[in-house]
Amino acid sequence: MTLILASQSASRKAMLQDAGVPFEARGSDVDEGAIKRELIGVPGCQIAGVLAEAKAVGVSLAAPGRLVLGGDSLVEVCGRQFDKPVSRDNAVEHLEFFSGKEMHLHSAAVLMRDGAVVWKTCETAKLQVRTLSPGFIQSYIDREWPAVAGCVGVFRIEALGVQLFEQIDGSHFTVLGMPLLALLGALRAQGELPS
């Protein structure tokens, strides 16, 4: 049986596809804002895990016996959590705030079957944002908007977004939005991939 990805995320789809994991993608309708409002003060990795579960559970219940993957990423800078930018101006505000600071990017993944969690994890990458000049921020947004509108942290690390950082500690896959190596191990343990 093919894994179901409870997401339409282009980066998560690409990671699974490139890793040779057969899957089908199904969108999930979750009010992330409402969930986050209930979790104020909760650590970022935990919030990402709750959101990953929320995205997977509805899809899982609608697909009996199937293994469903939910994922979520959350950015924290100076203890403040950031969502995807809601506008071009909001993206500029985010980048101005990130400038010269350390960003923590939490990426969670959960596997569910019949609405029950069978595996979950969260990994955190630390990204040191370099000092960004106003001119760089404007030229960056001119080139990357609207592609980064759906990106927490306002960047695509596989594109111009790499220029935002002077150092990255953590897995490249975590930065892309999914703890892929741990997930592949879990899929092998579930018999979904050959060992």
What does this protein structure show overall?
This protein is an alpha/beta fold and 195 residues long. The chain has one domain: Maf protein (Alpha-Beta Complex). 36% of the residues lie in helices and 26% in strands. The protein has 7 helices and 7 strands. Strands 1, 2, 3, 4, 5, 6 and 7 form a 7-stranded mixed beta sheet that branches.
Blueprint of the fold:
Elements: E1 3-5, H1 10-18, E2 23-25, H2 32-38, H3 44-61, E3 67-77, E4 80-82, H4 88-98, E5 102-113, E6 116-129, H5 134-144, E7 165-169, H6 172-176, H7 180-189
Parallel strand pairs: 1-2, 1-3
Antiparallel strand pairs: 3-4, 3-5, 5-6, 6-7
Helix pairs in contact: 4-5
Biggest beta sheet attributes: 7 strands, mixed
Dominant shape: globular
Number of domains: 1
Strand-residue fraction?
Answer: 25-35%
What's a quick, concise take on this entry?
This protein has helices spanning 10-18, 32-38, 44-61, 88-98, 134-144, 172-176, 180-189, and strands at 3-5, 23-25, 67-77, 80-82, 102-113, 116-129, 165-169. By secondary structure, it is of the alpha/beta class. The longest helix has 18 residues, at 44-61.
Pick out its properties:
195 residues, alpha/beta, Maf protein, 7 helices, 7 strands
